[in-house]
């Protein structure tokens, strides 16, 4: 039997609970959200570009029916359709570099594809997480792991800052430090190599830095808003948003080893 | 150009044309991805390796003979989620491969889909991906 007292209690809880949850995640609050888990990208390659670009396998055909046309899984990134209006806006020097690469790619050259050489995709491209992402979080450090090329990045949350030695030693993932602003993890990444791509095969300089704001936007739905700044290569900072969905049950919550070099002649 | 140089060139060209397909790794820019062709043949080798898998097959040439092709597939991790496995293709098994041809005309294709002898279809992406 529901008494007026229990109704009052339930109502009080209903009002208090969200307040308690908010208080826990307030700036400086003791309990930031836990991003730990395995995620799959939502629309890893962005909106479809051109005929046949839809991602995903073909639906199972009815017995005896002809198969639908096969689909491919990534838009063709040879630049043959020019630069997208949403692509980073390049300075003339870097646009010329992109055009030279595009010409080679249209001719069929894979030379500009670092990942095929088993090099890490690097930041910010690795946050595409096309094959899946695992997040490992502690109070002082959060680690992002990409199945594609077994790429790893560490984000330090303990207040350390990059030293001159760190800044003088650029890497693919760069050097990332972060802090919590309420429910949002804010990350600054510096010390990045210049031989990776911002997205697709958009080049950049070694002065590129990346700012990210990562938060849950729904149950198990993680959003990363990235801002890429490069005073040499970019006319203005470039912003993009990646979304990932948490995988909750096996086998989807397991990443597979990539061991990129195993298919190469020298590794046999 | 001397006749000797010509002979050397001819031999080199012949060697190149007759060579087994080189298994360097490609991105999709190396293939005419808007084109999907069909090859029927028999599995010679199935390499379940990163960064890309390889299906080496004898393709029927339509004249009673066959010619070796190398079909490049996606990474094992992605194919696992699409229903493939290390043992899903067996040596000697008949398969139909839907592939995009390489732009340089070599006997290398990019796998779009494989149909097994029992009619099962192996797509190149996980469902809903």
Relative strand content of chain A: 15-25%
Shape of chain B: globular
> How many runs of DSSP E, i.e. beta strands of chain A?
9
Which assembly state applies to the chains in this document?
heterodimer
Rg over CA atoms of chain B:
16 Å
Instruction: Kindly provide the radius of gyration of chain A, computed on alpha-carbon positions and rounded to a whole number of angstroms.
Output: 22 Å
Helix/strand order of chain B: HEEEHEEE
Which structural class should the secondary elements of chain B be placed in?
Answer: alpha+beta
Number of helices of chain B: 2
The percent range for helix content of chain B is 10-25%
Q: Largest interface by residue count?
A: A-B, 49 and 43 residues
Q: Average pLDDT across residues of chain A? A: 84
Number of strands of chain B: 6
Strand order in the largest sheet of chain A: 1-2-3-4-5-6-7-8-9
The total of helices of chain A stands at: 3
- The proportion of residues forming helix of chain A, as a percent range, comes to 10-25%
Structural category of chain A: alpha+beta
End-to-end gap of chain B: 56 Å
Q: What value does the average pLDDT of chain B take? A: 84
Features:
heterodimer, A: 268 residues, alpha+beta, 9-stranded mixed barrel, 9 strands, 15% helix, globular, B: 129 residues, 2 helices, 17% helix
């Amino acid at each position: 039997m529901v008494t007026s007292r229990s109704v009052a209690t339930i109502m009080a809880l209903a009002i208090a609970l969200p307040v308690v949850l908010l208080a826990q995640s307030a700036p400086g609050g003791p309990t930031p959200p836990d991003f730990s888990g395995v995620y799959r990208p939502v629309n890893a390659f962005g909106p479809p570009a051109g005929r046949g670009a839809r991602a995903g396998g073909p639906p199972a055909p009815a017995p005896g029916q002809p198969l639908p046309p096969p689909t491919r899984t990534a838009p063709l990134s040879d630049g043959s359709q020019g630069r997208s209006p949403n692509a980073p806006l390049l300075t003339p020097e870097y646009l010329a570099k992109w055009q030279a690469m595009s010409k080679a790619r249209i001719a069929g050259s894979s030379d500009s594809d670092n990942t095929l050489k088993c090099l890490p995709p690097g930041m910010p491209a690795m946050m595409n997480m096309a094959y899946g992402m695992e997040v490992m979080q502690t109070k002082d450090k959060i680690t992002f792991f990409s199945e594609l090329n077994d790429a790893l990045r560490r984000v330090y949350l303990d207040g350390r800052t990059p030293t001159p030695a760190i800044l003088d030693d650029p890497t693919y993932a760069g050097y990332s430090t972060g802090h919590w602003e309420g429910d949002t993890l804010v990350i600054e990444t510096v010390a990045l190599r210049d031989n990776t791509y911002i997205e697709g095969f958009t080049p950049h300089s070694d002065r590129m830095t990346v700012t990210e704001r990562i938060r849950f936007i729904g149950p198990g739905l993680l959003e990363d808003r990235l801002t890429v700044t490069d005073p040499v290569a970019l006319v203005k900072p470039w912003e993009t948003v990646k979304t990932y969905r948490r995988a909750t049950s096996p086998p989807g919550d397991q990443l597979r080893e990539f061991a990129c070099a195993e298919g190469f002649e020298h590794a046999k | 150009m001397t006749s000797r140089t010509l002979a050397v060139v001819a031999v080199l060209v012949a060697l190149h044309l007759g060579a087994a397909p080189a298994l360097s790794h490609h991105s999709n820019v190396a293939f005419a991805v808007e084109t999907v062709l069909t090859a029927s043949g028999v599995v010679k080798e199935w390499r379940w390796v990163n960064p890309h898998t390889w299906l080496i097959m004898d393709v029927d040439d339509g004249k009673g003979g066959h010619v070796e092709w190398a079909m490049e597939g996606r990474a094992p991790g992605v194919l696992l989620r699409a229903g493939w496995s290390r043992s899903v293709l067996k040596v000697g098994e008949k398969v139909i491969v839907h592939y995009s041809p390489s732009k340089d005309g070599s006997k290398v294709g990019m796998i779009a889909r494989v149909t097994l002898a029992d009619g099962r279809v192996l797509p190149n992406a996980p469902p809903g991906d």
